[in-house]
UniProtKB/TrEMBL annotation, chain A:
This is Sugar ABC transporter permease. The chain crosses the membrane at residues 21-48, 85-106, 118-139, 168-193, 220-239, 274-298. It comes from the Bacteria. It is found in: Cell membrane. The lineage of its organism: Bacteria, Pseudomonadati, Pseudomonadota, Alphaproteobacteria, Rhodobacterales. It is a multi-pass membrane protein. It comes from Paracoccus methylarcula. The keyword Protease does not apply. InterPro entries: MetI-like, MetI-like_sf. PROSITE patterns: ABC_TM1. Keywords: Cell membrane, Membrane, Transmembrane, Transmembrane helix, Transport.
From TrEMBL, chain B:
Keywords: ATP-binding, Nucleotide-binding, Transport. PANTHER family: MALTODEXTRIN IMPORT ATP-BINDING PROTEIN MSMX, MALTOSE_MALTODEXTRIN IMPORT ATP-BINDING PROTEIN MALK. InterPro entries: AAA+_ATPase, ABC_transporter-like_ATP-bd, ABC_transporter-like_CS, ABC_transpr_MalK-like, ABC_transpr_MalK/UgpC-like, Mo/tungstate-bd_C_term_dom, NA-bd_OB-fold, P-loop_NTPase. Pfam families: ABC_tran (PF00005), TOBE_2 (PF08402). This is Sn-glycerol-3-phosphate ABC transporter ATP-binding protein UgpC. It comes from Paracoccus methylarcula.
Length: 305, 354
């Protein structure tokens, strides 16, 4: 019986139409919008990295991998890459640990909790530019107290200009960034903490768990999803965050605080070499994608809730 | 195995006193049920025993040792929560073995204990599952397994069956009864369901608005309730209560009938008093010469029993339960008599007169 049943072809066609094609029809507006605002600029940006786009020397055109080869042998790029690691890891780890500590404190009951909770937001209310200036002044040995305090505590030999010392300069913006980033972790982790049912702590307490065991065996597993997502987002954000460094040190002295994002910025807007800036940006993008992929895999392995 | 003593315990939240004068001695291996309406303080009392809630006043002792200041983890008591409080990120086996994991117990010992508990509770096939992949009844079992593995001095249960459907509730009730017979451990069980209380308890503690109303065996509470609250709370359907006045050698109902006492006469019956009579103790009689006459307005046929709602002339609605099937039609006129030895008398404050 090779005769097709009447209507079978029509039925198949309508199957494809209904289940394979039709959904995209409904999704089309969203897809077009996303393509318009995200994919198109991204593709154009990446395409710059294969061209010579120098405003001072017009008429470059397609140059293939030349920008990337330059990048490979660019000492400043490797310094900036290393600084990016120090900057990002230094900032995120302290932001996270101090933010977690603050969240745990805020999750207890005490007098004036409301007031403190809203004060914690304060660093966010201040424009980045202002806080960068304020921190630059705090670190200034002539008008700021920090170098003197550090000397008094025996951490510094003498009240020198930290931001002017190539060995130490990067810690200036990092400290400012830690101060700036703690509220984010404190608030998000506090929200996660408050969603843990109190009965679990009671059950664990009756089961004999010490406060530390309750923290590691109940609190941390519950916070894990939130930790994974916030650490990932903040890492990407910090790696791209140039404002503080730009205002406090401008990448100096001697490129000791130059991170990839400030390097991109100066290359694009001071040297006006957009092609090369794009190549650096693509390198940073790839690194961050790898990082995000690793974190997502880890998250799936570790998070059970 | 433990004996527990609650001595004159009170509980305050700020200025609000929610419990007072709690005096109770729980014998070693006894199954005590705390029962009372919602909000009467059952959970609060249980949580004070567990150490989760500080005791505002009085003394709590386990085996003669004062426990007021002892942390929950040092009391060696297991608790099954109403919501089960299973650790959602741990599988069934780890949930049950958590107390041993905490103690740093030997892995092999832990495994065998968990396996044994899982076997007695019929959870062996589920040990690798997370709580979210379990049904309500299975979660309940895991919560019990977690307590059993502990091998504690005493078990506390806070309304452990109230989230289960009726059939499962009966099944788990039996299981808890078996558990108690097997372990012979001291158990304190909270419920608002009098059937659970009557079926499980060695002794029942009836609580109302933070006070102990009566402590006694199920039969004592049923037959000799200390006051009207206990009389109406224990027993189903609820006891009928009628206003009465004292009479020569007996009492007079509101419809004018006088009922004599035989043989015992309470010392003195106050001018304002109430008569309690359980629906199952009312007798049907010929309307001529019965102490009460009424019309059966609703008849419920339950098969084993028949519930009859009677509008009694001069008195009001009464409920009556008769064993077996009663071929009564709605709106039929019937007479009722009250057996003198089944009457409960209460004074104006609701205290039983004996
Ligand atoms: N944390 C609290 N603060 C104030 N009042 C409370 C608190 N917990 C319970 N109560 C009060 O204590 C009384 C007893 O509560 P509870 O023991 O939970 O009753 P139940 O018998 O239903 O378990 C209730 O009136 C309740 O409102
Ligand atoms: Mg309760």
């Amino acid at each position: 019986m090779s005769r097709k049943a009447p209507g079978e072809i029509r039925a198949r066609r309508s199957f494809y139409w209904r289940y394979v094609l039709e959904p995209y029809f409904y999704l089309a507006p969203a897809i077009l919008l996303i393509a318009g605002v995200m994919v198109v600029p991204l593709v154009i940006g990446i395409s710059y990295s294969f061209q010579s786009v120098r405003l001072l020397r017009p008429g470059g055109g397609f140059v293939g991998l030349e920008n990337y080869l330059d990048l490979w042998s660019d000492r400043k790029f490797w310094i900036a890459l290393e600084n990016t690691f120090v900057w990002t890891i230094g900032s995120i780890s302290f932001q996270f640990l101090l933010g977690l500590g603050l969240a745990l404190l805020l999750n207890t009951r005490f007098h004036g909790k409301r007031l403190i909770q809203s004060l914690v937001f304060l660093p966010w209310a201040v424009p980045t530019f202002l806080s960068a200036l304020a921190w630059a002044w705090l670190f200034n040995p002539t008008i700021g107290p920090l170098p003197h305090w550090l000397t008094a505590m025996g951490i510094l030999g003498e009240p020198q200009n930290i931001l002017g010392d190539p060995e130490l300069a990067i810690w200036g913006p990092i400290v400012a960034n830690i101060w700036f980033g703690i509220p984010f972790f404190a608030i998000t982790l506090l929200a996660a903490l408050q969603s843990i049912p109190a009965e679990l702590y009671e059950a664990a307490e009756i089961d004999g768990a010490s406060p530390w065991q309750r923290f590691t065996k109940i609190t941390l597993p519950f916070l894990a999803p939130m930790i994974a997502i916030t650490v990932m987002l903040r890492t990407i954000w910090i790696a791209n965050f140039a404002d503080l460094i730009f205002v406090m040190t401008g990448g100096g002295p001697a490129n000791s605080t130059q991170i990839l994002s400030t390097y991109i910025f100066t290359t694009a807007f001071k040297k006006l070499d957009f092609g090369y800036a794009s190549a650096i940006a693509v390198a940073l993008l790839i690194l961050l994608l790898i990082y995000a992929a690793i974190l997502l895999v880890l998250r799936r392995r570790l998070v059970k809730i | 195995m433990a004996r527990m003593d609650l001595r004159n315990i009170a509980k305050r939240y700020g200025p609000v006193e929610v419990m007072r004068n709690i005096d109770l001695a729980i014998e070693d291996g006894e199954f005590i049920v705390l029962v009372g309406p919602s909000g009467c303080g059952k959970s609060t009392l249980l949580r004070m025993i567990a150490g989760l809630e500080p005791i505002s006043e009085g003394e709590f002792l386990i085996d003669g040792q004062r426990m007021n200041e002892v942390a929950p983890r040092d009391r060696d008591i297991a608790m099954v929560f109403q919501s089960y409080a299973l650790y959602p990120h741990m599988d069934v086996a780890r949930n049950m073995g958590f107390s041993m994991e905490i103690r740093g117990a030997d892995a092999g010992e832990k495994q065998s204990k968990v396996a044994e508990a899982a076997r007695t509770l019929g959870l062996t096939a589920l040990t690798k599952r997370l709580p979210k992949a379990l049904s309500g009844g299975q979660r309940q079992r895991v919560a019990m397994g977690r307590a059993i593995v502990r091998d504690p001095k005493a078990f506390l249960f806070d309304e452990p069956l109230s989230n289960l459907d009726a059939a499962l509730r009966v099944e788990m009730r039996l299981e808890i009864a078996r558990l108690h017979q097997r372990l012979k451990a001291t158990m304190v069980y909270v419920t608002h369901d009098q059937v659970e209380a009557l079926t499980l308890a060695d002794r029942i503690v009836v609580l109302d608005s933070g006070n102990i109303q009566q402590v006694g065996t199920p039969l004592e509470l049923y037959e000799r309730p200390a006051n009207r609250f206990v009389a109406q709370f224990i027993g189903s359907p609820t006891m009928n209560v009628l206003d009465v006045t004292p009479a020569e050698g007996g009492i007079t109902l509101r419809n004018g009938t006088t009922i004599g006492f035989s043989p015992a006469v309470p010392a003195a019956i106050p001018a304002v008093a109430q008569l309690g009579i359980r629906p199952e103790h009312l007798d049907i009689a010929d309307p001529d010469g019965a102490s009460m006459v009424g019309v059966a307005d609703v008849v419920e046929h339950l098969g084993s029993d028949t519930n009859i709602y009677v509008q009694v002339e001069g008195i009001g609605p009464l409920m009556l339960r008769q064993h077996g099937h009663l071929p009564l039609r709605p709106n039929e006129r019937i007479g009722l008599t009250i057996p003198a030895d089944r009457m409960h008398l209460f004074d104006a404050e609701g205290i039983a007169l004996r």
